[in-house]
Amino acid sequence: MAAITAADVNKLRTMTGAGMMDCKKALTEAEGDFEVARDLLRKQGQKIADKRAENETSEGFVAVNVSEDGTNGKLIALACETESVAKVANFRELVQRILDAAVRTNATTKEDLLAAKEDDGLTVQEHITDLMGKIGEKLDVTYATLTAEKVASYIHSDNKKGVLVGLKNVGGADTAVVGRDVAMQIVAMKPVAVDKDGVDSAVAEREIEIGKEQARAEGKPEAMLEKIAQGKLNKFYKENTLLNQEFVKDNSMTIAQLLDKTSKGMTVTDFKRVAIGA
Question: Model-level pTM?
Fold first, then answer.
């Protein structure tokens, strides 16, 4: 059996970032072969991923990138199990690595992003698995991308919630302030769609049925139930679709009115909201 020296352990730690005892154990098992030891450490990460697959990930960090021309945004959320892990350097470095890969490859889906290869030959997923092996926690990625005439973004102060919002018909308006205000609205008020046309029909049907049941329980006549339920559905649209929501900073206007006031005809085409633990 090959003798494992402190220098060997330090070399593997430099190569992988794994803990000293994990490196020593991997080198011993690999009989001093560094490539085999690296594979063993990677498998250790996969074992942890499998073992902790059902664990809740309620902590983490959100990062965003908007292209220089303002037409495309990438939003990354890397979730972990504990607040302490979310604050360590190699976790934050991994968040940036994932975001950089998203920008570099212009990945359109999470699957494409996780499969993207880095300069070291490893995929983004393999880097995530490696870090799971080092920290002993489950990690989970959420990814969103958005293209529009102008994309605005916002990361909440807790770094656990973020938004991309697409605007059109911006004209010559400076969208920095209004874009941030709309993105903040989305973080705070959690709209389900841009407007009522974007609400899933199944959701609308469920709201109608709930409205009927509530009216029936209140003793309203059967002939009135449909009209009452429709009124409740319209209230749902007002409270839960972005353009119809009252602006949280000034409830005398809706988001649609805020945008139109900023630049005639300006509106939202789409938005992406990600949140860790909420």
Answer: 0.79
